[in-house]
Amino acid sequence: MEELWPAPSREVADAIRSLCQRLLTETDALVDAFARPSLLAQNDPALLADASLIEEDRELNRSDLVQWLTANIQHPGRRVEPYVGPRAMAYINDLVSRGIAPDFAVAWRVALQIGWRRCLEECVAHCADSDLLGVLDVTAQSLVQYALDSVAALRQASLAAAMGNTDAEGIATIQLIASGAPIAEDLAEGRLSYRMARWHVGLVLWNDDPQQADALDEAITAVRSSAGGRSALVARASATSRWIWLSGEAVPDVHHVKKALATTDEVRAAVGRPGRGLEGFRSSHQDALAAQALIIRLGSDRRFTPYADVELIDALTKDRAGARRFVINTLGPLAEADAALRQALLTYVQCGFNTTRAAANLYAHRNTVERRVSRANELSAVKVEDNPTHVAAALLLLDLAPGVMAATPS
Asked: CdaR GGDEF-like domain spans which residues (predicted)?
């Protein structure tokens, strides 16, 4: 690429190299600092609603940051060529196929503000006074030019993806329905080749590694096979996720889907509540997206999550610090006690306070369950007989995301 400013002196180049080596060790923290704000600045509801796309956007941010830092370690202060790799290209293809047009310039502007402030802090703390002005001057030029070049490269990649996309109409129709836009039922059926006037259950299947696309395909095959003759609609949501709808004259039973997915270790599933017609198609899909976002937000390893089971937890954990306070205030010492005690009490409540049923679900002797339930209730700050809803919610939250008890940074 054409160089647009003079090469730095050896002293300034050494200072820039040292700066980038230090920043490279805190890559994840830097990405955490600017990925979410830059995403929110784009104000695209379709992008913000999909946890898989949010993860891919974060990975793109990380790739861009590492590219600039490593380039400046090798050639300090020089113009850095953007790299749109296969994963980034797959992400852009997914955005285009769903009619999402991110404002890359806005995202980069926000990221630059946060990133540049961190550079300033490091420069002031570590650069010699004689080198400081030169380091700031060259680094600013390099960062700004890298942003401009990256925006141009991403726009070019988006254009190429748009010209090669063949599934845009179907994905656009799904996006319209999901957003609540008015669309005739017969038009939606014609575009999707899928009947709307019946019961629907929406699912989101995803994994964490784009290299494991085969596992997603195998999981979809398993879901189709378990559908028992019901209609199934499958849409590619991103490189790591698929949207699925099962439909029928009666409410689809997802028990068979859960069993089918139990054989695939790499794939996780979120399931919406059943709904009927066009509105049911939309609401069940939104439920599934919300369940997926909850699992990713909490860092949970749960593999099969019906939204009906975690809707209360979703509301409670929008504020992580508040969720931790809720658990501590509700469970007290039980929050840090043996997990077997908490599991016994949770199962007991879920089984309608029936010890025999709870023992059967836990594959334990009735007397063992009674002792554990009694001990757990002794430890709990709020007794189960006083407020079973709060106790069950706190126990389920801990079961879903044990890490919520970790102290939140001040």
From this structure: 190-293
Phi and psi torsions of 199, nearest 5°: -80, 145
**SS3 of 181-249:** CCCCHHHHHHHHCCCCCCEEEEEEEECCCHHHHHHHHHHHHHHHHHCCCCEEEEEEEECCEEEEEEEEC
Residues with Cβ within 8 Å of residue 109, at least 6 apart in sequence: 41, 147
In tens, the pLDDT along 281-323 reads 999 999 999 999 989 888 888 889 999 888 888 878 777 787 8
d(CA 214, CA 32): 30
Looking at the chain, how many residues does it have?
410
pLDDT band at 410; cut points 50, 70, 90: very low
Q: What number is the average pLDDT over the span 228-255?
A: 82
CA atoms lying within 13 Å on the CB side of residue 266: 16
Count Cα neighbours of 341 within 13 Å in the Cβ-side half-sphere.
17
Both tokens assigned to 277: 């017609």
Residue with tokens 């090798």: 74
Domains of the chain: 10-164 (no CATH), 201-308 (3.30.70.270), 319-405 (no CATH)
Q: Position of tokens 């995202």?
A: 107
Phi, psi of 14 (to 5 degrees): -65, -40
| pTM across the whole model | 0.60
Q: Is the dihedral of CA 255, 302, 209, 46 positive or negative?
A: positive
